[in-house]
Amino acid sequence: MKKRDVSTATDSKYRPARPFNREEFDRIRRILGGKVLFVQGDSAVSYGALLAGCRFFAGYPITPATETGEVLSQLLPRVGGVCIQMEDEIASVGAIIGASRAGTKAMTATSGPGFSLMQENIGYAAMTETPCVIVDVQRSGPSTGQPTEGAQGDIMQAKWGSHGDYELIALSPSTVQECLDLTIDAFNLSEKYSIPVILLTDGIIGHMREKVVLPEFDDVEIVWRKEPTRPKDEFQPFTDDGSQIPEVAIFGEGYHTYITGLTHSESGYPATDSQPDHHRLVKRLCDKIRNNRDKIIRVQRDYSDGGAGATGIVSYGVTSRSVNSAVKTLRQEGLKVDHLRIITNWPFPEKEVDELAGRVDRIIVPELNLGQVYHCVKEAAAGKAEIVPLWKTGGEMHVPRGIVELVKGRG
Amino acid sequence: MFRKAKHIREKYLEENMWPSIFCQACGIGTVLNCALRAIDKVKLDIDQTVFVSGIGCSSRLPGYIDADGLHTTHGRAITFATGIKLAKPELNVIVFTGDGDLAGIGGNHFIHAARRNIDMTVICVNNYNYGMTGAQLSPTTPLGGIATTSPYGNIESPFDLSALAIGAGAPYVAKWTTIYPHETMTAIKDGIEKKGFAFIEILAPCPEGYGRRNKLNQGKDNLLWFKKNSIGKSRYEKLSEEEKRACDKIVIGKLNDIDKPEFTAEWSKLVDKHFVE
Lengths: 411, 277
Known about the structure:
The structure holds two protein chains of two kinds.
Chain A: H1 7-11, H2 22-32, E1 36-40, H3 41-52, E2 54-59, H4 66-75, E3 82-85, H5 89-101, E4 105-110, H6 112-128, E5 132-140, E6 146-150, H7 155-160, E7 169-171, H8 176-193, E8 196-202, H9 203-207, E9 209-213, E10 258-260, H10 275-290, H11 293-296, E11 299-302, E12 311-316, H12 319-332, E13 337-342, E14 344-346, H13 350-359, E15 362-367, H14 373-381, E16 386-391, H15 400-409
Helix pairs in contact in A: 2-3, 3-4, 3-8, 5-6, 12-15, 13-14
Chain B: H1 5-12, H2 28-42, E1 49-53, E2 68-71, H3 77-87, E3 92-98, H4 99-105, H5 107-116, E4 120-126, E5 129-130, E6 136-137, H6 161-168, E7 172-177, H7 181-193, E8 197-203, H8 207-213, H9 219-228, E9 230-232, H10 233-237, H11 241-246, E10 250-257, H12 263-274
Parallel strand pairs in B: 1-2, 1-3, 3-4, 4-8, 7-8, 9-10
Antiparallel strand pairs in B: 5-6, 7-10
Helix pairs in contact in B: 2-7, 4-5, 5-6
């Protein structure tokens, strides 16, 4: 019998938990080749992950998300990281949580059916405050639906998919460039707030090729989790230092942290019979996001000069592309349009929608589903404006003309 | 032969977690005892060791050890353990699981980790039922066994977990019962020392769950049942073919110990070949 020997691992270039710096960032850029690339959204997500310091990917093949794993299976060995194809999507999230707890930035990518399978472990990541990134390249559902077609049907699932009370962050890119940029943001937010972050792309952007400009090291912020500041014998994994965000002790560094999905006290040990402990815990899980919503939420406003008769449009993800085109046409025809593009789907930009509702008589909400963000907009506008849905399913994007006609026909 | 109990207690146990949740005469305490003694014997660096578990009685074990512990979702412990080991291959990863957690909800992860041969030690407390939820039928409940969801007797063929592990490719597999604590400890020690996926199945009493529904009311009855119904591998192998066919006892002992390429070692080679400076 061979005796335990870890020397092969430590002498090797195989070091996923390596420190991240300018040298490492520039090495990745060199490996990706060139400053300007012409790539698919799924590839751009992979590149963004590497630039953000992700050195661990676990996934399961699923259309239209597979390319992200394929690209990373080529690139991660070249940077000393790990890429593993797990037996299913449940295992994939388990593996990235384990990897994150061992001190590596980790990601998985999937689509609808896989995203449904992931929900329990996403809840575990939220409960245990483990940083990780989950990419959902949305496709038409329910069930197997249209595997090769894009959709925006997972917005509500991204927020409410696991049971119980928690908050997480979800971002919606609308270009391939944003697939890269928002993947870096997703890692930063997950590290900063110690939570799972969902990147909600879709089959259209995932498979579309566009120009991507790789950022310079000085152009981007790369965030790493808050590591323990207290001595090992005093350290507790869920102490609230006032920021509501816990310090994360990495496995193998001698902190002896116990992490459980059970309701736990600040020590990390189970406190399942305690109403105050449970309330304090889930309240903090929600408040650490809710209280920082102004720092987290990003929207893009393309507003007219205001005044009576303006129509509002709230869009996100791939649908924003159709809306951008429609807005241009409408303005050429002399109509007033205020376009609010949501980049951060969760936490939902209620304040920003409320502000828009105060400017316009009605807000059109085009989506590739049968009404998801529509409900959030309606709730945020609270009767200040009429909310008009524009729904489309079946895998095709909204045609700009459809949006133009809706604005004009009811204008 | 054994270190003093006080030494093990003071060195490894998490003092804030006692008393334990375990019922009287439950076999899980013996498994913890054997595991800690094995760890002590191997002189494992406890700071470099992570204990991972799923859901169920046996999955509570990492909480009682003063070390890094990850108490995960039901059936998924091995997937989290895979992430830990691959992200930091220098760590020792030990998984505590039960028959329901491992072979019921988590069966797929079990066979795939064995197939991949990732270096970890999986210790399964097989007590023939879902104890924590109140003695329901498990994938290892014997034929005819009474559980709260098989009140008329189990009609399903049970899994032989060790045979499953060997079939899936696990290079080290041993099966013991808690009535043989020294052998159990030695098997865990060997499993930890094995560079690869090591699986140790430990048949353990659940007197409050499976036991009292199957005329094994006392812990002692359970243990004696295991003793009576098991046969050591070396003794079994000396039987004639005819005797083997007639033998309905559980074969215990070291059931597999082979060398094969381990995942992190192979990944290490792959990285060194393709790494870009």
